[in-house]
């Protein structure tokens, strides 16, 4: 925490914390995109997934 005239002026996070936060945000965004795709009907069954993964 950085103080200015005895009051909090800024917070500083370590680079390690920032990396974890970025990974967490990326994971959460991936989940959001997947849910949005499912809502739009962009889904596949197990057989379709197997075929796609084995290409």
Overview of this protein structure:
The chain is an alpha+beta fold. It has one domain. Helix content is 60%, strand content 13%. The chain has 2 helices and 2 strands. The chain has helices spanning 15-39, 46-53, and strands at 2-4, 7-10. The protein has a two-stranded antiparallel ribbon. β1 and β2 form a beta hairpin. It starts with a strand and ends with a helix.
Task: Supply database-style keywords.
two-stranded antiparallel ribbon, 55 residues, alpha+beta
Topology diagram in text:
Layout: E1 2-4, E2 7-10, H1 15-39, H2 46-53
Antiparallel strand pairs: 1-2
Order of helices and strands: EEHH
Q: How large is the share of residues in beta strands?
A: 5-15%
- Which outline best applies? elongated
Strand order in the largest sheet: 1-2
Estimated helix fraction: 55-70%
Number of strands: 2
> Average pLDDT, to the nearest integer?
79
Low-confidence stretches: none
The main β sheet shows up as: 2 strands, antiparallel
Short summary:
The protein has helices at residues 15-39, 46-53; strands at residues 2-4, 7-10. The protein is α+β, with helices and mostly antiparallel strands and 55 residues long.
């Amino acid at each position: 925490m950085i103080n200015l005239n005895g009051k909090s002026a800024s917070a500083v996070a370590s680079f390690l914390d920032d990396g974890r936060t970025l990974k967490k945000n990326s994971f959460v965004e991936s989940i959001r995109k997947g849910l949005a795709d499912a809502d739009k009907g962009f889904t596949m069954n197990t057989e379709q997934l197997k075929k796609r993964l084995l290409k």
